[in-house]
Write a structure and sequence with these properties.
- It is globular and about 35 Å long.
- By secondary structure, it is α+β, with helices and mostly antiparallel strands.
- The protein contains two helices and six strands.
- It is about 20% helix and about 25% strand.
- The termini are far apart.
Amino acid sequence: MPSINDTINASMLRDPRWTPHPERAAGGTKYIATFLNRRGDAIALDLGSGGKNAIWIAAHLAPGALAPAIDRELYPADKPRNSNLNVSQLKGKALMRLFPTSLSEARQLMDHFAEL
C-alpha cells in the first residue's frame, strides 16, 4: 500500500498547479520529490520518511493558522539537511516540516500551497 506522500506525489505529477522542480528529477528520488507551485514556491515530499509523511516548505509559508492540528517542526536555516532539499528555493532557508496524519490533511496542505 502506498504511503500518503507516495499518493500525493502521484497526484501532484498530474496536477497542472504543480511543476516538478527543474533542479530535480520529475517524480523525485528514492527520498524526496520536489515541486514548484505557479508562483515558484518549492515544496518537498519526504518519500523516505515512512509513516511520518513529512512535507517540507519554506517556514514563512506556514502560518500558525494553517491547519493548526497538523504536527510541525521548525527546521532552522543552519541545520544540516538532506542534499535533495538543496534546491534554490529551500537551500539555506528556515524550513517547516509538516506531518499530516491522513490523506485528507495532506491534500488540504497541497491545495493551500498550490493556491498561494
